[in-house]
């Protein structure tokens, strides 16, 4: 007879038990399955407040194409893209106002996750918030607009599950496919910090908290 502490949870949307051991993905990259699950309703409340001030928008790449991911930001700086390039900007270009402050619950979650993964003292000053609907994808890219690449990036997945593509240091390296579900947190640091990565087109689904959406928070030390 075996006992499963998580027998009572409906994992059908998620597939993984919260609080399980950190799962190494690659050098410097660690998955914390379900780490954000209990805070998710509060995070979603805060995201609603942020989007009321700094609305979701589809940014334009320097190549002139609209991104399929809808984005907003909070914190001292926000990631923006337009015809002139990518940058971190202290203000929302839609209204020239500072981005909404990073909620304490966001900062707390990101610093606790980073510490679990060996990055004690991580102090994010920017949080990019990505919203996906079925069909939305994010093509392979590197995150290299941050000043200090020694700081990790912490990502929090909410809502519908996604297939995350995790490649190598060269664009041509064939990416691994990793399922990221509601509440999963990933810390990307060390040699993984400059890995190419992306998100496969989101599959249809219906999440109890988010309906037909996935939201991803990425915490960065940008400045
Ligand atoms: C690996 N977001 O916003 S999060 C991004 O799910 C971004 O919305 C994806 O890539 C999303 O830039 C993926 C996971 C992630 C974020 C940053 C990374 C993985 C990373 C930076 C370096 C290596
Ligand atoms: Fe990225």
From TrEMBL:
The EC number(s) this enzyme carries: 1.14.11.33
Entry keyword Transmembrane helix: no
GO molecular-function terms, A-Z: broad specificity oxidative DNA demethylase activity
Record domain Fe2OG dioxygenase: where: 123-223
Coiled coil: none
A family per Pfam: 2OG-FeII_Oxy_2
Record keywords, A-Z: Dioxygenase, Iron, Metal-binding, Oxidoreductase
Name of the top EC class for this enzyme: oxidoreductase
Cofactor needs: Fe(2+)
Stretch list, region Disordered: 1-21
Protein name as it appears in the record: Alpha-ketoglutarate-dependent dioxygenase AlkB
Upper classification of the organism: Bacteria, Pseudomonadati, Pseudomonadota, Betaproteobacteria, Burkholderiales
């Amino acid at each position: 007879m075996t006992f499963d502490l998580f027998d009572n949870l409906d994992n059908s949307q998620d597939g993984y038990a919260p609080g399980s051991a950190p799962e190494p993905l690659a050098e410097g990259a660690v998955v914390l399955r379900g780490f954000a699950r209990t805070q998710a309703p509060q995070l979603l409340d805060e995201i609603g407040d942020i989007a009321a001030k700094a609305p979701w928008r589809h940014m334009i790449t320097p190549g002139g194409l609209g991104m399929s991911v809808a984005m907003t930001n909070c914190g001292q700086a926000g990631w923006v893209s337009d015809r002139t390039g990518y940058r971190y900007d202290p203000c929302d270009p839609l209204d020239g106002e500072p981005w909404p402050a990073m909620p304490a619950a966001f900062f707390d979650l990101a610093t606790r996750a980073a510490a679990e993964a060996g990055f004690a003292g991580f102090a994010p000053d920017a949080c990019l918030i990505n919203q996906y609907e079925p069909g939305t994808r994010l093509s392979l890219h590197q995150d290299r607009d941050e000043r200090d690449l020694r700081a990790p990036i912490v990502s929090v997945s909410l809502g519908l599950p996604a297939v995350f593509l995790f490649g190598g240091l060269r664009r041509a390296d064939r990416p691994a496919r990793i399922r990221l579900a509601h509440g999963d947190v990933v810390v990307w640091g060390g040699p993984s910090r400059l890995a190419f990565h992306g998100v496969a087109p989101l599959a249809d689904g219906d999440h109890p908290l988010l309906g037909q959406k996935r939201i991803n928070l990425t915490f960065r030390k940008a400045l």
